[in-house]
Specification:
InterPro entries: DNA-bd_IS481-type (IPR024967), Homeodomain-like_sf (IPR009057)
Biased composition (Basic and acidic residues): 183-194
Number of helices: 7
Strand order of the largest sheet: 1-2
Domain DNA-binding: 3-80
Region (Disordered): 52-71, 157-194
Number of strands: 2
Oligomer: single chain
Number of domains: 3
Biased composition (Polar residues): 158-168
Largest sheet: 2 strands, antiparallel
């Protein structure tokens, strides 16, 4: 698709080609009228002769062949190291003797470039669950709180003073466990981003 400020849109390319082919204009005259080079005018006229109106659209600039593309065996080794050992492009490149930029392109093509989307234990993609009734699945987080002795801890006093305070109040120091209900963020209703 040609951009908004393009000199030649598919329709004007066809008009240029028809001036050259049917009306007998020279490439230079037609090119001057449409403010392009004679070489461009010849290109569109030749393409119109070969393909008619269908050839006036934009074509992909992707090459037909890529002889320096990473081979399938190397791709398999990169993907295996990425999945099994969760290494980054620099580490994989060091092991395989490849540039990090080449290694980075392979996981990006295979859509495994983000390690945060992979479960660290199983190596599988993360799958979150959705629940029909949000809030019906609640869990309790258990948190450990340390008791600070009377008079404060060593952050406010010296360590020596803190030790004497802790000896004096040893029966009250320690740890307290507290259960806190928390909403499960994965059970929130799924909504689409627009």
């Amino acid at each position: 698709m040609s951009h908004a400020n393009a000199v030649l849109t598919p329709r004007t390319r066809e008009r240029l080609a028809l001036l050259v082919i049917k009306d007998g204009w020279t490439y230079a005259a037609a090119a001057k009228m449409f403010m392009v080079t004679p070489r461009t005018a010849k290109k569109w006229a030749d393409r119109y002769r070969a393909e008619r109106s269908a050839g006036m659209g934009d074509r992909s600039s992707r090459p037909h062949t890529s002889p320096t593309k990473t081979g399938p065996e190397v791709v398999k080794r990169i993907v295996a190291l990425r999945w099994r050992q969760r290494l980054g492009p620099v580490q994989i490149g060091g092991r395989l003797g490849l540039p990090a930029s080449t290694v980075h392109a392979v996981p990006r093509r295979c859509r495994i470039n983000r390690l945060c989307h992979i479960d660290r234990v199983t190596g599988e993609p993360l799958r979150r669950y959705e629940h029909d009734h949000p809030g019906s699945l609640n869990h309790v987080d258990v948190t450990k709180f340390a008791n600070i002795p009377d008079g404060g801890g060593h952050k406010f006093l010296s360590r020596q003073q803190s030790k004497s305070n802790s000896r004096a109040t040893a029966h009250r120091t320690g740890e307290t466990w507290q259960g806190l209900p928390a909403a499960d963020r994965d059970c929130l209703p799924a909504h689409r981003h627009r």
